[in-house]
Design brief:
With 216 residues, this protein is an all-alpha fold. It is built from 12 helices and no strands. It binds iron/sulfur cluster (2 copies). The site of one iron/sulfur cluster has 14 residues, from helix 2 and helix 3.
């Protein structure tokens, strides 16, 4: 029988990951975490998480990139900001969770078949393309991307609710979109480019580029 190793060693780390996260505006304070556990204590969802928020903070700082980015914790975080409000070191834990989610999607670590990253991806693409979110197609895309068995199970469980929402006009099947899509495409190009620049360590030039565009 093959033994499953659970202990993490120095060699499992991706050197520089913690520094990268802490270089993102708003995430700098992570460095001063004292591992008091207040964030885990107040988090209403920590009992469902594979790693508590305190553990995620420690693992991020210690460069355990793969474990952090492929964890379910970052997707279970409901962005309630309780931890951020209570942290004695004023660490913006919720914003760090957002940064980790973005990286997990971008770098292909997000758990496959889990509904929340599938929802985030579909939401992003819909806003990117149409400037609006249509709830009905968002739900359908999320279900299909989170796996066929998941889609069937959830779809069958909720068909009655869906039908009632359609009947009462609260769940439109018509794709919503904005008119001046060319302006949206231009905005998205600038936002995407600044993200790429930031990841490449050209944050200052990205900021000044954004500023220059804003002045025009
Ligand atoms: S509450 Fe703040 S200082 Fe305490 S463990 Fe969580 S992140 Fe660290
Ligand atoms: S913001 Fe996320 S991690 Fe923080 S308390 Fe709320 S659910 Fe937990």
């Amino acid at each position: 029988m093959e033994l499953q190793r659970t202990i993490k060693y120095e060699a499992d780390r991706v050197k520089g990951f913690g520094r990268e996260i802490m270089s993102v505006p708003g995430c700098e304070q992570l460095e001063s975490c004292i591992q008091c556990g207040t964030c885990s204590g107040v988090c209403p969802l920590s009992i469902y998480m594979d790693f508590s928020p305190r553990q995620i903070m420690a693992m991020t700082r210690s460069d355990f990139k793969k474990e952090v980015l492929s964890s379910y914790t970052i997707w279970l975080c409901a962005s309630c900001y309780d931890c951020t409000v209570e942290c004695p070191r004023k660490i913006r834990i919720t914003d760090i969770m957002y940064e980790l989610k973005q990286r997990a999607i971008r770098e292909g670590y997000a758990p496959k078949g889990f509904a929340t990253p599938a929802l985030a991806r579909s939401f992003y693409h819909m806003v990117h393309e149409n400037g609006r979110v249509t709830e009905s197609s968002l739900v359908i895309k999320m279900l299909l991307k989170s796996g066929l068995s998941n889609a069937l199970k959830t779809g069958l469980g909720m068909w009655r609710l869906g039908l009632n929402l359609i009947k009462t006009g609260r769940f439109s099947l018509k794709q919503e979109t904005i008119r001046r899509k060319d302006e949206l495409a231009q905005m998205m190009r600038i936002a995407d480019q600044s993200d790429i620049d930031r990841l490449n360590g050209n944050g200052a030039s990205a900021t000044s580029e954004k500023g220059a565009h804003a002045q025009h």
